[in-house]
Amino acid sequence: VLENQDLQESIKPQKVEFHSLNFNTTLHWQPGWAREAGDALYFVQYKVYGQSTWQNKDDCWGISSRVCDLTHETSDIQEPYYSRVRAALAGVYSNWSLSCRFTPWRETMIGPPMVTVVHSNKSITVKLQAPQSPYKRKRGSKIPMTNYYDLLYQVFIINNFLDEQHRVLVYEGKEKIIKIQDLSPGVSYCIVARMYMPMLDHSSAYSSRQCTVL
């Protein structure tokens, strides 16, 4: 029995955490410290905070992976959720490992916008597209993150001739198409953008650089 108890403890999953980007939400965990814990199978449950019964996540029941997609299960974005994971090995089940409380609206990370750049001889037109959530409208198109938050686009220009690290903010607002004028011909410019949430004073990562020579 003692050996079983030791095994129970040593295969118990560690660091059970929610990761979420644009409401695409996955649960991640680490294996227990036993040498053989790499061969364990995992079982995932979830619930809304305050509910008494846990729900099994069928797709993550007896899996060897250490990631479980809970996007669909956490779609009520204002609700706080919990999840928990247990491991099984050689017929022995560990105790449950509990995640921290997770509220999608507060905790999801917002991704950068998509940026398209079109240049003429002295100006650059920047087209911006907000990141999309996994949730769909009735017609089937994905709902952009701007539906859920008051988000602004921030657009920065980098003059490679002067300094490749120095970003200058040239626009902040909600317009999806902006024009940057009075630029120098023959100079290489790069544009990066990010989403900014004034209410939580929170910014996304920068988009990848879109570069052009006028």
From TrEMBL:
It comes from the Eukaryota. Keywords: Disulfide bond, Receptor, Repeat, Secreted, Signal. Residues 6-96 form the Fibronectin type-III domain. Receptor for IL22. Binds to IL22, prevents interaction with the functional IL-22R complex and blocks the activity of IL22 (in vitro). May play an important role as an IL22 antagonist in the regulation of inflammatory responses. One of its GO terms (cellular component) is extracellular region. The keyword Secreted applies. This is Interleukin-22 receptor subunit alpha-2. Coiled coil: none annotated. InterPro entries: FN3_dom, FN3_sf, Ig-like_fold, Interferon/interleukin_rcp_dom, Type-II_Cytokine-TF_Rcpt. Residues 108-212 form the Interferon/interleukin receptor domain. The lineage of its organism: Eukaryota, Metazoa, Chordata, Craniata, Vertebrata. GO terms for molecular function: cytokine receptor activity. Belongs to the type II cytokine receptor family. Pfam families: Interfer-bind, Tissue_fac. It comes from Catharus fuscescens (Veery). Its main location: secreted. It is found in: Secreted. PANTHER family: INTERFERON/INTERLEUKIN RECEPTOR, INTERLEUKIN-22 RECEPTOR SUBUNIT ALPHA-2. Gene3D superfamilies: Immunoglobulins.
